[in-house]
Write a structure and sequence with these properties.
Number of strands: 28
Distance between the termini: 91 Å
């Protein structure tokens, strides 16, 4: 009686930590290997990798990139069919067909006392079954029942196989067997095919090819594989098959039959094609993605270099897309992206490439240009197309778009360089007000290089102690003395000299340096202010970015504890942008800071969106009137009316009001008349280093109507010239949201 030991094929196993790329190369080098067993350190089976399933997951560049460096333990079948070698073949096959037929088709692992012996396959079972049948017929010629059971067993095996199985005679190439799957794949009934040859079903030329293949299999005695075979069906369609053939010898050792197994691989090929497409196309808009865009751009540049024509790269950004996405939801945002993609397609000529690079960023490769006029016209068409109203699921949406253009060879002949310069031009277009296009200019690159150099210097400035704090007094008109000083950040660069905060603060915010820099300002200012007179408060500005640090309250507590400065002498200034960003979370932080005894001040009151609503939602200790109103107080009745209204509002709410930017005695006198309680500005004092401020504290201002004694000796004749517009930390977001004329601070 045959056992599984008689069907075992020796096959080198793999280990669980074998990399996907190693197994991939092995399958390619061993085309006849259908399965690979996976063993543990004791040579006991723990998994199985089946060839077709493996190649499906490793198809195209995407799959190989995903699994090449991962162990095959993530790819293998963790529950393979494992059976001991001494199990009888017939019993095993019958049992397996009843509950694990799919595992049997993939292959199974044979063990000897639990340790790996080899693998079994469908072909091995079929050959063993054929031999079993032959021996059974010879040994049990008189036992018709046994013959019928053997035939039934063979039929059950063949019929259960989902792949097409057929057998031909080696001598006349006539069919002797075709299973149910074969009937379904070919569309021919087995009764019509048995006893006939391929010449009865296929064109003579194709039938001759099949006959030649069978002859080669019979003469070689080896397994032959046809990877992709297009076989006509009865209904006129074509099946895509992978066929494996082997000769079955007769009693004399010569080939008697040709056994073949054909697998329909059309679905697998479709899946591979889909994976390949996903690797190169954006699934939402069906536009080429960044990878394909780069390939098309490189190809266009190569052609242009031979023809000596121009290639333009257009970088496109949808204006206000984030607002639409946040307010109307992602489905509307997706619909907007798809409609925008259709409009961009309509703008370009055949042969040009429109791609989605990610988010709301698109790009166009425009080929075959002889001058810049074509690029100018296309950029204008794009801006006009995106400016039109979008009708999206009952919503009318207007966004607009900005375009940056770079042209080869003037702006570069490398794809990465062109894309980078087009992006610079896009940044300029957005900075100029959006809804426009801009061509790359050399000055943009120079500005970028200068910015990068400043960024590198900024990264080492904090560690090397290049920063220092200046202080500008806050003068109480009621007490006639300085009641506080505002800390302002200065960067004394070793070679550049004093660098404007307007130049380095936005960069610090972008590169994530603003939080450690803000913490240093807070700690250093508290340390220096601890030595001032007890009535003098310290004002420190907090950037909106600092509120994203969950440790902000702890940092304030630590700065006060280490310096010994009482909490009531610390005043933290914020702008409305802090409350616009995560207002619930930031409001919670403000309440925690208030609970410490720290005073909270709203800076630049009146320049934002919802000043009055914020005064209702949080008990601010102080509001600061923005200098843009103070500047026009003598000449603009509206500015004076606004200041008076804010002063009255502060008085009714019990909130101290400070006027910023006071630069003349006339402005000061008018503020006194309106009942302003506190002022700040160059007329009182420029920002000064800590040592000078400490020496000046205690100097008072003369009575109303008399001369004003400033803390900056020698600067009594009118306002001092501002060193720069921005005096410290200010969020870029806040500046974009309408903080006109803002003096940023830290």
């Amino acid at each position: 009686m045959f056992t599984l030991r008689d069907t075992v094929s020796s096959l080198v196993p793999a280990r669980a930590d074998t990399l996907g790329k190693t197994l991939y190369e092995r399958f390619r080098e061993e085309p006849d290997t259908l399965i690979v067993p996976v063993l543990d350190a004791d040579d006991r089976p723990i998994g199985l990798v089946e060839r077709n399933a493996f190649f499906l997951r490793m198809a195209a560049e995407y799959g190989r990139a995903l699994y090449a460096l991962r162990p095959i333990s993530v790819l293998m079948d963790n529950d393979p069919l494992v059976v001991e070698a001494d199990v009888e073949l017939a019993a095993f096959t019958s049992d397996s067909l009843s509950y694990r037929a799919s595992d049997l088709l993939r292959g199974f692992i044979v063990t000897d006392k639990g340790r790996y012996l080899g693998v079994g396959t469908v072909l091995g079972l079929l050959q063993a079954a054929n031999e079993t049948n032959r021996r059974g017929v010879e040994a049990l010629a008189s036992a018709k029942a046994d013959q019928e059971r053997a035939h039934t067993f063979m039929t059950a095996v063949v019929e259960a196989i989902p792949s097409m199985v057929f057998v031909k005679r080696a001598d006349d190439h006539s069919y002797v067997l075709l299973n149910r799957a074969g009937e379904k794949i070919l569309g021919h009934a087995r009764a019509d095919m048995i006893g006939r040859t391929d010449a009865d079903f296929y064109p003579a030329e194709q039938a001759a090819i099949y006959r030649q293949r069978d002859t080669e299999v019979a003469s070689s005695g080896e397994v032959r594989v046809i990877e992709e075979d297009l076989v006509p069906r009865k209904d006129g369609t074509t099946a895509l098959l992978r066929t494996k053939k082997i000769a079955i010898p007769g009693p004399d050792g010569q080939a008697e039959y040709i056994l073949a197994v054909s697998e329909d691989i059309a679905e697998r090929k479709r899946a591979e094609a889909q994976i390949a497409r996903l690797a190169h196309y954006d699934p939402l808009t069906d536009l080429p993605n960044r990878l394909l865009f780069q390939k098309d751009l490189s190809a266009a540049l190569s052609r242009a270099s031979r023809r000596e024509d121009l290639v333009a790269v257009h970088c496109i950004d949808l204006d206000r897309f984030k607002t639409v996405n946040d307010t109307l939801g992602h489905p509307i945002g997706d619909a907007l992206l798809k409609t925008a993609a259709e409009r961009l397609r309509a703008c370009v000529r055949e042969g040009d490439t429109v791609a989605r690079l990610g988010g709301d960023e698109f790009a166009v490769v425009q080929c075959g240009l002889t001058d810049l006029s074509g690029a100018t016209r296309l950029a204008g068409r794009i801006v006009e197309a995106l400016a039109e109203t979008f009708e999206l699921q009952g919503h009318q949406v207007m966004i607009g778009g900005s375009v940056g253009v770079a042209v080869s060879p003037n702006d570069g002949s490398d794809s990465d360089e062109l894309l980078k310069k087009a992006d610079m031009a896009l940044y300029r277009a957005k900075a100029d007000g959006r809804g426009a296009f801009h061509f790359f200019e050399r000055a943009m690159d120079e500005a970028l290089q200068a910015r990068r150099a400043l960024e590198l210097d900024l990264r080492v400035a904090l560690a090397e102690g290049q920063f220092e704090l200046y202080y500008q007094p806050l003068f109480s008109l009621g007490a006639d003395r300085v009641m506080g000083c505002e800390a302002l950040l200065r960067w004394n660069h070793p070679t550049r000299g004093m660098v404007s905060p307007g130049d380095f603060i936005p960069i610090a915010e972008e590169i994530g340096l603003i939080n450690p820099l803000g913490e240093w300002v807070l700690r250093e200012a508290c340390r220096e202010a601890a030595g001032w007179p007890d009535h003098v408060r310290l004002a420190v500005n907090l950037s909106p970015a600092q509120f994203r640090d969950k440790h902000l309250v702890g940092i304030v507590v630590s700065a006060l504890a280490v310096s010994g400065l009482p909490a009531e002498r610390l005043e933290l200034e914020i702008t409305e942008s802090v409350l616009l960003q995560d207002s619930v979370g930031n409001m919670s932080i403000l309440h925690d800071l208030k609970a410490l005894g720290v005073r909270i001040s709203m800076d630049d009151f009146g320049t934002g969106y919802s000043s009055l609503s914020y005064l209702r939602s949080f008990p601010f200790d102080k509001i600061k009137i923005d200098q843009t109103f103070v500047r026009d107080i003598l000449d603009d009745a509206d500015a004076l009316a606004i200041i008076k209204a804010v002063l009255d509002l502060g008085a009714s709410l019990g909130i101290t009001t400070t006027a910023e930017g006071v630069e003349s005695a006339e402005q000061l006198d008018e503020l006194r008349r309106q009942g302003c309680g506190e002022i700040q500005g160059y007329f009182i004092s420029r920002p000064k280093p800590a040592a000078e401020i400490a020496a000046m504290l205690g100097v008072t201002v003369a009575a109303q109507g008399g001369p004003i004694i400033t803390f900056s000796h020698g600067e009594k004749e009118g306002p001092a010239t501002k060193s720069w517009e921005d005096e410290g930390v200010v969020s870029q977001t806040a500046s974009r949201q309408g903080a006109r004329g803002k003096k940023g601070r830290a």
